Amino acid sequence: MGERVRGISRLSYAWRIAATLLGIGLLLNGSLRMSDDAWPLGPLSQYAFSPAKDETIVITRVEGMLADGRRIDLPLRVETAGISRAEIEARIPQITADPSLLRSVTEGWTSRHPEQPAPIRVWLVQDQIRLVDGRVGPRRLVELATWELPS
Amino acid sequence: MTTLRSVGSWFMPLVPESRVAVLRTVLYLFVIIDIHLFVRDPIPLSSHPELYQPLLIERLFRLPPPSVPLTITLYLILMIGCLVAAANVLPRLAGGVVAAAFTWWTAIGMSYGKVDHDHLALVVALWVLPTVGVIADRWRSVERSAQAGWALKCIQISVVFTYFLSALTKIRSGGWSITSWPDSSILLWAIVRRPHGLGQFLLPYPELLHVMQWLSFTAELTAVVVLWLKGRALLAAAVFWLGFHVFTVAILYIHFAPTAICWLAFAPLERFGPWLRRVKARWRERAGRRSARHPVPVLRNHPVDSGG
């Protein structure tokens, strides 16, 4: 096979070396000094923290009461509510200050479940699971916010 | 000067350009899958402006806040751009547009509180692939170049840095301690929060989870070594890391597909085009032989020697 080599100019060579060193520098800086705000050059912090042996693990959920009195779980996933659990968890302080922000979940859920009756009230709740000496311990339910949907 | 040159040739080895041409096809098609399966929420999220908190990159470039028309436009640009770029047509223009649009799209997906870290290698790949420019004969190219070598090296570095930097972040978050993360209850925490995978069967065995944390942390911290591996050792490392991703999917439902696909930057993809042509030729040959073995229908089904 007659293989050829494409040439490269000094300038092409130089900017590539410079870009590589700059990129590596920015990535190291991101991991050692920056926060998630610097994405895609921030730290790779997924699962990068160290929960203690007596940590309380929280699972954030949204529950809704339907007009017929049934209380149901509104699963926080993009397919079911248009928004995922992590996004709601990141906004807990804002939601407890202004529970109407739960509108994002109810609107997402209602538009994806047109055949179901709309919820009339929703709760932001957390399952709190305590670790005891590094093993799964007792669980309790905590209510963080309630919002009555405007009728 | 020789050291400088050898450093340069490490960053820019002469590599077959067909390798980049094949990788382009795979990665641009993968982006189409990605925006439907992985970073699939920018359009629904963009209808909640009250939850939007722009990242540094969005503030720096003064990007407008996402709206539904904007995210749908980005989606259409990505679909068209990826199809053009996957065909190795207009590689600089189409590739550049996809790089910018996908970076923005993914940044939007991460501007509502949750930032993921599985896209580093893919985002880097999309920015460096266009720099190789036009590849004559695409998959059939017989040219080698330092331009192709540099693009692949950048993707390789980003793949191993995804692991190495996550180990650094673990050391940093544990107060600059090597042992705090591997000795913590992180896997237990993750399994309790994602109870759907096989991980729930490991919940009664926290000691085993600690062993797994030590293994993965050591592998992450030493991942940079992969950049100097060759042949079977490189293959073994790739199999180990792809196995690692399969494992995290099985126990936690956490996949790193955008990182895993970029492992192809280490593979001799230039062999794929000739292999495909051989398979096609053999298939055609077999089809030809089959048609020769079967009787060919004769029009007006009369024996040729029969008399009237």
Write the layout of secondary structure elements.
The complex is a heterodimer of chains A (151) and B (308).
Chain A: E1 4-6, H1 10-33, E2 56-66, E3 71-73, H2 78-81, H3 85-89, H4 92-97, H5 103-112, E4 119-132, E5 135-148
Antiparallel strand pairs in A: 2-3, 2-4, 4-5
Chain B: H1 2-11, E1 15-16, H2 17-37, H3 42-45, H4 56-60, H5 68-86, H6 91-109, H7 120-128, E2 143-145, H8 146-173, H9 186-193, H10 206-221, H11 231-252, H12 257-262, H13 272-293
Antiparallel strand pairs in B: 1-2
List keywords for this structure.
heterodimer; A: 151 residues; alpha+beta; 4-stranded antiparallel β-sheet; 5 helices; 32% helix; 30% strand; B: 308 residues; mainly alpha; two-stranded antiparallel ribbon; 2 strands; globular; disordered C terminus
Please tell me about this protein's structure.
The complex is a heterodimer of chains A (151) and B (308). Chain A is α+β, with helices and mostly antiparallel strands and 151 residues long. Chain A folds into 2 domains: 1-48, no CATH class; 56-148, no CATH class. Helices cover 32% and strands 30% of the residues of chain A. Chain A has 5 helices and 5 strands. Chain A has helices at 10-33, 78-81, 85-89, 92-97, 103-112, and strands spanning 4-6, 56-66, 71-73, 119-132, 135-148. Chain A is elongated, with a radius of gyration of 24 Å. With 308 residues, chain B is mostly helical. Chain B has one domain (9-278). Chain B contains 13 helices and 2 strands; from the N terminus they run αβααααααβαααααα. In chain B, α2 (17-37) packs antiparallel against α5 (68-86), α7 (120-128) packs antiparallel against α8 (146-173) and α8 (146-173) crosses α10 (206-221). Mean pLDDT of chain B is 92; it is low at 302-308. Chains A and B meet through β1, α1, α3 and α5 of A and α1, α6, α7, β2 and α8 of B.
